Amino acid sequence: MKRSEKIITNSVKIAGSSSILFILLIFVFLVREGLPALSEVSLKDLFSGRWYPIEDLFGLLPLISGSLVVTFTSILIALPLGIGTAIYIGEIAPKNVKEILKPTVEIMAGIPSVVLGFIGIQALSPFLREFFNLPTGLTALSGSILLAMIAIPSIVSIAEDALYAVPNSYRDASYALGATQWQTIWGVVLPAARNGLLTAVMLGIGRSLGETMAVMMVTGNAATTFSGLKSVIMPVRTMTATIASEMGEVASGSVHYHVLFFIGIILFIFSLIINISSSTVQGKSKQERGQVIS
Questions:
Q1: Which of 84, 144, 158, 272 could be bridged to 74 by S-S, CB 3.0 to 4.6 A?
Q2: Which listed CATH number (1.10.3720.10, 1.10.10.10, 1.10.150.20, 3.40.50.2300) goes with 35-293?
Q3: Angle 98-282-273 from CA coordinates, rounded to 5°
Q4: pTM of the entire predicted model
Q5: What is the structure's pLDDT at 294?
C-alpha cells in the first residue's frame, strides 16, 4: 500500500472512530451532571406525577408520558402516509410524477421545525380548537401532527430505498403467476422489504422523540400525566421542551439543574435503544438480501 493510501485509510479510520468518541464524551458529560439528581431527589419523588420545580417537585412521569403520547401518536399518523407515499413513488408513480414528488418530499425534510411551529400556532391549533370544541388548540394532537410532518420525509426516503432493494425477479415471478400490481405489492414486495420498512418506522420514532421547537410551541406545555385517549386532545409537556424552556433560567449546580440533565440521560437512552434496534434490523435486512443474491 502506498504512503498516500495509508494516510487516507488512517484518516477515514480516525473519522469513523471519532464519532464513537464524541458519543461517549456526551454520555459521560450527561452522567456527570445528571446522576447527582439521584442522591438529591428520592426515586419516589423523581418518578412521581407532579412537575413543579418552584416547590421542589420533580416528578418525571408527566414529562415521560407527554413525550410518549406525542411521539407514538405522530407515528400513527406518519406511518400510513409515509409508507403509502413510498409505495406510490417506488412502485406506481409514472416517471414524470416521481421526478416532481420525490424532490418535494425531500424539500419537506429541510423545512425548519420552528417554521412548522408557527404554522401550527396560526392555522392548526385554531382549527383543532374549533373542530373538537376545546378550550385551547395547543394539545398533544397538534404536536403529533407537526411531528408527523417532520417524520414523514425520513420514513419515505428509507422506505423507498427498502422497496428499491427488492429484486425485480420477485415482481416478475409474481406477474408471471397472474398476480395484479397491488397483489404483487401487498403479497410480495412489502413482505420482502419488511425489515427496511421497520427501520424507517424506528428512525421516524427517533426523529419525533428528539424534536424540540415545534413541540414546545404547540403542545401547551402543561405537565399532565397520561389519562387515556383523552390525553391526545389535552395540553402536554415533553422532555425535550422541558429542557429547552428551563435550562436557560436554572442555576448551575442546583437540584433543578441536575434533574434536567437526568432527563437528558433518559432521552439519550431512549434514542440509543431506538438506533441500536434500527441498526440491528437493518443489518438483518442486508444479510437476508445477501443470502437471496447468493
A1: 144
A2: 1.10.3720.10
A3: 115
A4: 0.85
A5: 47
